[in-house]
Amino acid sequence: MTSTKIWIAHALLALWISMRSSGQLWVWLKHWTQPSEYVEGYQIDTSDIEWKLYRNSLSGFLFAFILHSVLFQIIIRVFKRKDGDVILAIFWIFLQLYLTSINCILFTGILILLATTITYFTRRQIFSWIICIIFVLKADLWAPYSYTPEKYYREFNFYLYTAVQVINFCIYLVKNPEKKFDFELMIRYAQYLFYPTYSITLIMLYEDFENQLNLVWKKVEKQETLWGPEVDFWFFVKKAIRLIFWFYFIELFLHFIFVNALFNSPFTLISGLHPVSKYSQMWRYFDQGLYQFLKNQVYIPLMGNTKNELILNLRRLGAMVSVFLFVLAWHGLRSNYLYWVLLSALELCIERFGRYITTTTTWTNFSKFIGEANTTRITALSMLLTVIPGIFGVFFFLGPKGIGDTIFVNVLVDGVVDCFTLNVRYANSGFVFAHLLILGYCFNNVCIYLEKKYGFDTRKRKVE
C-alpha cells in the first residue's frame, strides 16, 4: 500500500508541477500556443501537429463515417451479396475520393498494381516488401498531396496504411498459390483497400477482414442481428459518449498543461513520464492491428520452425531486429526515432532475459527461500532495467531532434555518475535520477500488486 500511495501522490504532484511549469514558462512556449476556441482569455497548446490536423479533419471523418454506416446497412439488406459487394467497393472508392483526392488514389493505384502484379506472377512476397517499404520511406517526397491541411493529413495516412494493406494481401496470395485473381477476389481486394475506417486509421490482416465481411453477409442472409445480444442502442450511445468525453478531455487538458509545447521547447527539461512496467505489453495492446501485422507477417515467419536452441535464439533476434526496422521505416529514418527503437529493443531483450531467469530452478528455489514479499521487491527492483530506458525512449519519440539527446545525457548519464560518486543534491542530475529509481520501484510494485490481486496477466490474455 505504501508504494501505491507514493505513486498516486507523485502522479498528482506531477500534474501540479506541469500546470505550474506551463504558466511560468509561457513566455518561451507562447509561439506553440494559440487563443482558445472554447474559453476567452485562455491559450491552448497546438504544438502537436498530428492532433491539430486530426481535430481539423474530424468533421470530414465524421461525415464520411456516418454516411458509410447508414448506406452500408441499407446496401447489405437491399442487394444480394454479389451485387452488394460491387456496390460497396464502388461506394468506398468514392468515399475515399472525398476524404483524399483523385491524385492520391491514382498514385496509390500504381503501388497497388505494381506490387500485386509482381507478387501474383512470382508468388514471392519479398518484392512487395521492397516496393512497399520504399514507398513508405519516400511517400513524403514522391506522392502528390493536397494543399489543404485536412486532406494532406488524410492522404499521408492513406499512403502509409495502404502500403501495409498491400503487403498483407500479397502475403495472402503467396500463402494461397491456388487462388486465382478473378473478379470476386479483385472486388474483395478493393473493399479491403478502401474500407473507410481501416484504410486510414487501423491495420487489419486481409484474412481477418475477409472473415468478418463473410460473417456479416451470412448473418444478413439468415436474417440475424449483426451484433451480439449485449449490443443495443444504449451500447452505441455509451460508446459515443466515451469518445466525445475523451476528445474534449484532451482539449481541456491542453488548456492547462502545454505538454507538447514543453517537449518541443529547447529551454525546458521534463521528467516523470513512465511507460508500462512490462514493455512487451505496451507493444501488444496499444495498437492491436499493428501488433497482429508485425507478429504474423514479420516476426513468426522469420522465426521459422526449428528445435535447435542456438538457431532459434538467432532467428528470434533477427526477427526482433526486422520488426523494429519496419517500425523505424514507418516513423521515419531520423536519429531520435532510431534511439527510441534501440531503447525499445533493449527493453524487450532485458525483459526476455528476466523471464528466462524466472523459469530456472535456481530462481524457483531462491524465491521460496526468501518468501513472496522479498521476491516481489527483487522483481520490482529488477524491472527498473526496463522502466528507466522506457522513460528516455518517450523523450526521443515525442520530442524533436536534440531534446531526447539532451535529457538522456543530463539525467541518465550524468545522473548515474552523480549517484556513484555520491554527488546527490537537490535538483541536480543525481537527485533526479535517484528520484526516478525510487518512483520507478514504487510503480513496479503497484503493477505487480494489481496483477496478483485482480489476476490480470496479459501473457495469458488473447489479443482479439
Salient structural properties:
464 residues, two-stranded antiparallel sheet, 21 helices, globular, disordered C terminus
**How much of the residues is beta strand, in percent?**
under 5%
Indicate the radius of gyration in whole angstroms: 25 Å
String of helices and strands: HHEEHHHHHHHHHHHHHHHHHHH
In total, the number of strands is 2
Structural class: mainly alpha
Strand order of the biggest β-sheet: 1-2
Task: Quickly count the domains.
Answer: 2
Can you summarize the main beta sheet?
2 strands, antiparallel
N-end to C-end Cα span: 33 Å
Question: Low-confidence runs (pLDDT<50, min 5 residues)?
Answer: 261-277, 458-464
Mean pLDDT: 79
DSSP helix fraction = over 70%
- The outline comes out as globular
- Tally of helical segments: 21
GO cellular component, one term: membrane
Organism: Acrobeloides nanus
Signal peptide: 1-23
GO molecular function, one term: palmitoyltransferase activity
Write up what this structure looks like.
The structure is a single chain. The protein is mainly α and 464 residues long. It folds into two domains: 2-23 and 277-454, no CATH class; 79-221, no CATH class. It is built from 21 helices and two strands. The protein has a two-stranded antiparallel sheet with strand order 1-2. Strand 1 and strand 2 form a beta hairpin. 25% of the residues are buried.
